[in-house]
Amino acid sequence: MSSLLVSEKELLLIQTAVFITKHKSCFLTVWTFLVCHEDVVKIVELACKHNLCIIPFGGGTSVSSALECPEEEKRTIVSLDTSQMNRILWIDEKNLTACVEAGIVGQDLEKQLAESGFCTGHEPDSMEFSSLGGWVATRASGMKKNIYGNIEDLVIHIKMVTPRGIVEKNCQVPRMSTGPDIHHFIMGSEGTLGVVTEVTIKIRPVPEYQKYGSVVFPNFERGVACLREVAKQRCAPASIRLVDNAQFQFGHALKPQVASIFTSFLDGLKKFYITKFKGFDPNILCVATLLFEGDREKVLQHEKQVYDIATKFGGLAAGEDNGQRGYMLTFVIAYIRDLGLDYYVIGESFETSVPWDRVLDLCRNVKERIVRECKEKGVQFAPLSTCRVTQTYDAGACVYFYFAFNYRGISDPIHVYEQIEVMYIRAIVEGEKLMSPNILGKLRKRWMKESISDVGLGMLRSVKEYVDPNNIFGNKNLL
Amino acid sequence: MASLTSFFAPAAPTPASDKEIWVRGAEPPSLLAFGGGDQGREGKQLLVSQKELTSKKRDEFEDILEERRLSSDLRYAMKCYTPVIYKGLSPCKPNAIKSAVLQSEQVQYVIKQLAKEMGESPDIIQEEATEILDEMGHSMQLGAVRFFAFTLSKIFKQLFQRVCVNEEGMQRLQHAIQEHPVVLLPSHRSYVDFLMLSYLLYTYDLALPVIAAGIDFLGMKIVGELLRRAGAFFMRRSFGGNRLYWAVFSEYVKTMLRSGYAPIEFFLEGTRSRTAKTLTPKFGLLSIVMEPFLKREVFDTYLVPISISYERILEESLYAYELLGVPKPKESTSGLLKARRILSDNFGTIHIYVGQPVSLRTLASGRINRCPYNLVPRHLPQKPSEDIQEFVSDVAYKMELLQIENMVLSPWVLVAAVLLQNLPAMDFELLIEKTLWLKGLTQTFGGFIEWPDNLCARKAVLSGLTLHANIARLVDGHVVLNDKGVEDGAVGEIVFKHALAILMCATYRNQLLNVFVRPSLVAVALQMTRSFRKEEVYSCFSFLRDVFSDEFIFFPGISLKDFEEGCFLLTKCDAIQTSQQEIYPTDKGSVIVSFLSAMFKPFVEGYQLIFRYLSRETKEAFTEKQLIPGVRNFVFQLLEKGNTQCYEALSSDMQKNALAALVQLGAVKKKKMSNGFTYNVNQEAVNKILDMFDARIPVQKPVAARL
């Protein structure tokens, strides 16, 4: 079946190529669905032969314009849709690895692995739609990385098709000391070098027990201090996040209407206890949400340890519901974004990582910058500008920002939005350093040089030069 | 403005705006077409402001003493004081700040380092740090503030007729204080400055500033402690070598800034200007307050230039004595009490103009790369990079230029300028006429004249004479300098008395100089070169600008721009005409040109005298302390013999500036010794500069050579 598909495409492609040579002034985009690794090899060969441009396409969840066709591209563009390459090829229970085709999306992967009692534990916010290949190509980070690790820790083996041929390691060992790891050329290459077709990834047994939790802190500073301590003692649960006051209130506003008078009474009582009895200012307090995973016994023990630390920083346990709702919010926001457009609201989110000692400064400065920039660009209402500390590392933390503004009364909202967005990233890049699963793409590549120096950029360029001299993978990301 | 930019390149497109524009250096095509040699700092973004040179709109003034004269001072001092504060402030006590400073990583790091190096226990050094902090720290208390509010009301009402403030400026300041940490940068002409400013903020219900004061004040019994409670903190005059002191001091200032505890106030000029000319800026404190922004510890910092001008300066005669070498009395409480007789005197009006707050973020954007700060832990003491140092210096100059721009000039300033050119006596009617003429010229040059209530010129001049009866008086329809006691003294006595009167008078003329300096140096250059070729005039201008770089305030490195501005202003008042290659005075303009160069003649001549002394009389290395009496005697003798009329060369301020200029021009070598700096003169180089000054040889600057 697959060969049939490709031969059809072949025909079409050759026709287009001929067409192009005749009418040099126009270009076409060809959409191809691929079914397996061999398909990809054929298409790439064909593209090299006819000098076409390929843009790989996975889940299409990019927020950094990485999938946009470059305007100046005059060749025929072939969009390689990998969504049909979605099978688990094998599962190795002895070594706890699985070989998976790169087009599979997160939720399908987890579902299918769960059937055999396993999981990857990799949960980026976009996991409902984003693909394994996309994770590899963008160095994705997952919510539960404290237990399972980020994509670079999860990947054992990668197969990638490049214009030069196929690149892969000849073994599946846990670690190699044979020079720089070639996986690191692939991870984060953002589709500029080739198409990732198959990935061998670590798997884990599905955890026995899962528990949410939450802690209220009197203010953001104390919350950050607590997270820092947790990171220092290396006892972070599967996920620990600190949500600032604005985001907490936002989440609260989204809370569904309660079913009974009793629950609303209980809620009222809780609120009274926290604000009046404990003296927390509802406009300053912030919340940490927690997720524990593992053996039941260990989870309970772990939970106690974390809550003990939190108490030292003035934290107050605030129940499982709040925690669960916090994680829901992450997914909900993606949907709210579209809804918001109907109400003149444009929003976006960005992530960055930062050393511990500068977390507070970064959060304050970026939020401040958004407010100021919106004001200068003539946005009439105060924007929503909020952040959460979303990951903890030994040396620093990951911070996730949301911003949204009401564009009523602005003549050209998209333009303003773009300007603010560009400024926003600039603030972050200037602010500390860039990182994060979705920070580069086209939107942000102009800061590449500043962040990795001329020589660093040259190193990446020379790799590109060798692997893809004719710029077949011409999505112009990164470099 | 259009005609300014089109001065050299008619088609240069410049965005016209009534605000300031930040321009990239070395871009205008005119620079390539003409000279541009010393503009070589390519890519450097200049903080040059293109001033709107025609009648700039300024705020209206409001007299704050008026209300004080009508209502009770006691009630005013006891009023409910709930100041506007920084939005991110978590209120804390002065002592909490001190302990935060002691515990800070910055200070602890230095303590540990020192302990390791000196082999002492950290506790001892910690003790030392605590002592430093106790000596330094303020302990602001509302009680003391109220005490000052009461007594200062009484005193100010006695001393001054009016204290005028631009209320819009105060409102802008109020917003600024709420938004970001604020640094107040007032001009410094008198001890009254900081008292007045705190008084002002109290009156307008704004957060009271903490003020960097000299340690000398602590020598005053009771008063020192009172000042401390009113928000003054004390810094030693020099502590470059003392790492512990530096760490504690800078951390103290930065902690207060970061937390938004209070606006921080200090004087860029470092000390009171004895001559009423703005002094060249000091960079130490400025670089400290800029650091939190550069390290991204605060989002932004506002710098607020404040211009305080006095119709009559409280310390005017003290200054004149000091400039002539009579030592300044030590700050002491008994001295203060003795000085109370001045309470019966009238010191006219004070004008305080609070400028537009300048956002440091805006100044730095596109100019400063803050990334290097990312790579080093923030508590390590770091020497600022050259880029940063240059930036600090540019910001300092920019702030001083903003101070100058908004400095109010009283009619008496004009009278003093005219009078000094017409000594020993001047016809009263002529003086009025000339003063009016100068008023027009000053306004053309962008000077900020407050002519009280459209008073007629005669009355304005008369009231100036009344107020300054100690300087000049009216005798038989002629105005003469008030140098009493001249008749019955020895020759030396006469010269001294005369010099005193002239220096006092010059203090007022000096207030005009920074407004006039660019067109005037063009005028001087025109007279010195006796040529109309633009290039020659420019190289002479640029030479003068270098020589006078410590005397007047020039933004670093934009010689050509200053020249263009000077020419533009002269063209505007029809004094000169310019073509592509040439500059020539118009018939009508010769009056202006000669007036302007006469205005700066004391400096040209004074410098010549000082240079001559240096080239002839100094053979060995000397210190500044040795030099000044030497020059003074030299000039004194010349004056006694009547060989010169340049009394202002006696001013120690001018002597120091001249020396500093020579050091910068490379004609004098400055060496650091254990007991301070010593200087070595390169006779040949000084002679060469002298020759250029005397116009015996044409100015040969590298710029000109490359043309």
Give the gist of this structure.
The complex is a heterodimer of chains A (about 475) and B (about 700). By secondary structure, chain A is of the alpha+beta class.
Structure description:
Chain B: Part of a heterotrimeric complex composed of GNPAT, AGPS and a modified form of GNPAT. The complex is a heterodimer of chains A (479) and B (707). Chain A has helices at residues 2-22, 37-50, 106-115, 132-138, 145-148, 151-154, 183-186, 220-232, 245-253, 261-277, 296-312, 320-342, 359-376, 413-431, 448-467; strands at 29-33, 53-57, 77-81, 88-92, 97-101, 118-119, 155-162, 165-167, 195-202, 204-205, 209-217, 239-243, 286-294, 316-317, 345-355, 384-392, 396-406. Among the domains of chain A are: 8-81, Uridine Diphospho-n-acetylenolpyruvylglucosamine Reductase, domain 2, CATH 3.30.43.10; 88-205, Uridine Diphospho-n-acetylenolpyruvylglucosamine Reductase, domain 3 (2-Layer Sandwich), CATH 3.30.465; 210-331, Alpha-Beta Plaits, CATH 3.30.70. In chain A, the strands form 4 sheets. Chain A has a 7-stranded antiparallel sheet with strand order 14-11-13-12-16-17-15, with helices on both faces. In chain A, strands 4-5-9-7-8 form a 5-stranded antiparallel sheet. In chain A, strands 1-3-2 form a 3-stranded parallel sheet, with helices on one face. Chain A is globular and about 75 Å long. Chain A is 42% helix and 22% strand. Helices cover 50% and strands 10% of the residues of chain B. Chain B contains 29 helices and 18 strands. In chain B, the strands form 5 sheets. In chain B, strands 1, 2, 3, 4, 5, 6, 7, 8 and 9 form a 9-stranded mixed sheet that branches. In chain B, helix 8 packs across helix 10 (192-203) and helix 26 packs across helix 27. The longest helix of chain B has 39 residues, at 491-529. The radius of gyration of chain B is 26 Å and the shape is globular. Chain B starts with a helix and ends with a helix. Chains A and B meet through helix 13 of A and loops of B.
